[in-house]
């Protein structure tokens, strides 16, 4: 495994073969994909820390979905990657959808976990309020946010049976920088839906039956707009799909890649 700095992004790479690019969501990092690395056997795995998240520094330009797409495309060009399977979670699924539309030559397939087209209008103000809390209270604010996410974004089963998963979700959020997290919230609050009918690559949509962000009915409707998309709903799972249901998530990825060969 190697960690490199490309276009201001910290990127972990490992393995050889066809590239797969992994994009985390809000409050995430390259470690969102650690539990499912077995699904990428025989591939070159490229795990990105988005600008302002985890180890990647906050750029001078304000964070936005378009900015994420631009920097990922530039990083892949610098790494001489012409096409890759793309895997994403939560906010990262919005980035991945726009990447597939704006740079269709780069995207071989999409596997989206906890996917959404864009935040509902009612949720945008909540994201802005979360950004304000992170700015105003700093680390203490991130702790409040992390505790609320653990409570509200994981399944009943996870809370009852998997305390280590709860700790991992909490630590993922608390490890963000306050300003980086705040700007990431604002980028998500301003996200617009991509015209997903234009996506022409094999697409897998995986969500949890208790995911309040990638709600099953919304993900099913999203899947109906993407030609040939497969929708999977995991039982006893909230929004942190690969943390809450790692074995099931890995199995879905393996089946998806096998079918696409």
UniProtKB/TrEMBL annotation:
The keyword Transferase does not apply. Pfam families: Abhydrolase_1. The keyword Cell membrane does not apply. GO terms for molecular function: 3-oxoadipate enol-lactonase activity. This is 3-oxoadipate enol-lactonase. SUPFAM superfamilies: alpha/beta-Hydrolases. Gene3D superfamilies: alpha/beta hydrolase. InterPro entries: AB_hydrolase_1, AB_hydrolase_fold, AB_hydrolase_sf, Epox_hydrolase-like. It is an enzyme of class 3 (hydrolase). Keywords: Hydrolase. Its EC number is 3.1.1.24. Residues 19-246 form the AB hydrolase-1 domain. The lineage of its organism: Bacteria, Pseudomonadati, Pseudomonadota, Betaproteobacteria, Burkholderiales.
């Amino acid at each position: 495994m190697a960690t490199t700095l490309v276009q201001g992004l910290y990127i972990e790479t490992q393995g050889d073969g066809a590239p797969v690019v992994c994009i985390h969501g809000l409050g995430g990092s390259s470690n969102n994909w650690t539990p499912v690395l077995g699904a990428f056997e025989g591939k070159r795995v490229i795990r990105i820390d988005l600008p302002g998240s985890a180890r990647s520094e906050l750029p001078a330009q304000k964070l936005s979905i378009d900015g994420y797409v631009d920097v990922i495309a530039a990083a892949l060009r610098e790494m001489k990657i012409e096409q890759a399977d793309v895997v994403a979670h939560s906010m990262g699924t919005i980035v991945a959808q726009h990447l597939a539309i704006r740079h269709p030559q780069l995207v071989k397939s999409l596997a989206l976990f906890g996917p959404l087209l864009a935040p509902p209008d009612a949720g945008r103000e909540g994201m802005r309020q979360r950004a304000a809390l992170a700015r105003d209270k700093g680390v203490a604010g991130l702790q409040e946010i992390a505790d609320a996410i653990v409570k509200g974004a994981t399944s009943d089963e996870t809370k009852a049976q998997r305390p280590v998963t709860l700790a991992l979700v909490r630590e993922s959020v608390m490890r963000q920088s306050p300003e980086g997290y705040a700007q990431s919230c604002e980028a998500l609050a301003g996200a617009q839906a991509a015209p997903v009918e234009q996506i022409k690559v094999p697409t897998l949509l995986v969500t949890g039956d208790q995911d309040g962000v990638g709600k099953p009915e919304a993900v099913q409707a999203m899947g109906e707009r993407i030609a040939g998309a497969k929708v999977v709903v995991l039982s006893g799972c909230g929004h942190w799909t690969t943390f809450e249901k790692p074995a099931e998530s890995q199995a879905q990825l393996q089946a998806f890649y096998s079918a696409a060969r």
